[in-house]
Write a structure and sequence with these properties.
Layout lengths: L11 H13 L1 H9 L11 E7 L4 H12 L6 E8 L3 H12 L9 E6 L6 H9 L4 E4 L5 E2 L3 H7 L8 E15 L5 E5 L13 H4 L10 E4 H5 L13 H13 L1 E14 L5 H4 L2 H15 L11 H8 L14 E5 L13 E5 L2 E6 L8 E7 L6 E12 L7 E3 L7 E3 L2 E4 L6 E9 L1 E11 L10 H28 L1
Helix pairs in contact: 1-2
Length: 477
């Protein structure tokens, strides 16, 4: 006589599929796994969702010009006009009407009223006809192979999120002598987003600008993985991770666009305060703890490396680490340099030997990461000139935006920076530095260091605002 016993009923795979069935419906999950979903005959490969309020006509014109120059024209553009006033609507329609004839039928305006910044995304995904959907903001720029780079990896990765690289760059709105608004880049490219998707790292912070991603529309329309419209910020991170945990992500290391960081223009960072961002972040991470997570094999090495070291130390993401030089024209006058690294488990040795284009170096700046909550310990640097002599330099504590605790520099906020001033500007042959790196802050930091750190950040923010005002006034002259 046989027993009525299922030997795999509570296995990890069974639990994972059961959770998906409860959340998205068993029939939908079965159809998703089988690929039981039909697209219309005229469905393009990519639907491009572009939010706008009609306030940035110069930027909108530029990004649509980028779409006109695509090497792969298998796309549609849905301009989601959110709460457009009369002037804004006329501006958007005028820009669409002035597009070249070959763009006719590819770009359309969809008006959306009410809700928050997430609402036009939900409506856009509902309207999209494409097999994949990407969110391209009206103030970013993409290169001619943006669509092509996604399309190139579709066949081998159907059903996955498609991910490409992009660079970041600081930009400003300025007025020229004719009182016309001109968009100007004010920094070299930053390669902080030129890295493969790492699921574990993405659980703590988003490293993927929206336009670097193309989402399978079937996940939205069949499984019902929708945007959380209660979120006022980080709605893209929430949607990305909930989709990635089901679909997975495929990388194409082609740099396909510029994520524009606006210094003197309104954006989500200026419209919402820090508390609001922090609350949304905690709310999203709480969602992560309620589900089982399927770990891709590409993340296994990262997990093993981190679990085999002390909790306080961790592997440095060298893709984010940048090295800048000032020859008297400013750090942003030249491209950043990527040092050569050796080391692991928190202890690192780095070396820079390429000083092409620098006849004389006045100062050195090291940016370890994009975000803070980190500690650099036992930092030492050695600078050699072209004759092999040691160059005298000094750590500029006033221009280093961390808190100093004995042998450590602690960084809580974003964009950590360490600056060394050279006593007598010199032509360099090599720079080497050693340090220990930790994704954490020591207990001592919260017993006094945080007060000094907060004051320094406040004064630095005031200085940046005054510098921005000075640049605007200078540009108007």
């Amino acid at each position: 006589m046989t027993q009525n016993y299922n030997p795999t009923e509570r296995s990890a795979v069974s639990d994972f599929l059961s959770e998906l069935s409860v959340k998205y419906g068993k029939d939908n999950v079965d159809r998703f796994i089988k690929g039981d979903f039909q697209f219309s005959e005229d469905a393009p490969f990519l639907s491009v969702i572009m939010r706008t309020q009609g306030h940035r006509p110069e930027a909108l014109s530029e990004v649509l010009l980028c779409m006109c120059g695509q090497s792969d024209m298998d796309f549609e553009v849905l301009i989601m006009g959110h709460n457009l006033d009369k002037e804004g609507k006329e501006s958007v329609l005028s820009i669409i009407e002035n597009l070249p004839d070959f763009m006719e039928g590819k770009v359309r305006l969809v008006e959306v009223e009410g809700g928050n910044r997430t609402t036009p995304l939900s409506r856009g995904f509902e309207e999209a006809k494409g097999r994949y959907v990407s969110i391209l903001d009206d103030d970013d720029l993409v290169f001619e192979d943006w669509v092509e780079a996604f399309h190139a990896i579709e066949n081998e990765n159907k059903g996955k999120i498609l991910h490409t690289y992009c660079v970041a760059q600081d930009w400003m709105n300025v007025k020229n002598k004719y009182d016309e608004t001109v968009l100007v880049s004010v920094s070299p490219f930053k390669t902080i987003y030129c890295t493969d998707f790492e699921l574990i790292r993405q659980l703590s912070q988003n490293y993927c600008p929206t336009f670097s991603l193309a989402f399978p529309s079937v996940a939205y329309k069949l499984l019902g993985i929708h945007f959380d419209e209660t979120l006022t910020t980080t709605e893209d991170w929430d949607f990305l991770m909930r989709t990635a945990l089901v679909c997975g992500v495929a990388d194409n290391p082609t740099i396909t666009g510029i994520y524009r960081l606006w210094i003197n223009a309104e954006n989500s960072a200026t419209l919402h305060n820090k508390k609001e961002w922090d609350n949304n972040r905690k709310y999203i991470q709480k969602k992560f703890t309620s589900d089982s997570i399927l770990i891709p094999k590409t993340d296994t090495d990262s997990i093993i490396t981190k679990s085999s070291t002390d909790v306080y130390s961790s592997r440095l993401n060298t893709n984010e680490f940048t090295f800048l030089l000032d020859d008297g024209t400013g750090f942003m006058s030249h491209p950043t340099i990527s040092p050569e690294f050796t080391g692991e488990n928190g202890k690192w040795h780095a070396r820079v030997t390429d000083f092409k284009g620098f006849d004389s170096v006045k100062a050195i700046r090291i940016d370890p990461l994009v975000s803070g909550t980190m500690t650099i310990k036992n930092f030492s640097i050695q600078i050699k000139d072209e004759n092999g002599n040691t160059v005298e330099s000094k750590l500029n504590k006033k221009r280093t935006n961390g808190a100093f605790l004995k042998n450590s520099i602690c960084f809580l906020g974003d964009d950590p920076q360490i600056r060394y001033d050279i006593k007598s500007p010199a032509k360099l042959s090599n720079v080497t530095f050693e340090f220990e790196f930790f994704y954490d802050l020591p207990e001592k930091f919260f017993k006094g260091g945080i007060i000094r750190y907060t004051f320094k950040r406040w004064t630095a923010a005031l200085y940046r605002k005054l510098r921005g005002i000075f640049r605007i006034l200078k540009a108007k002259k």
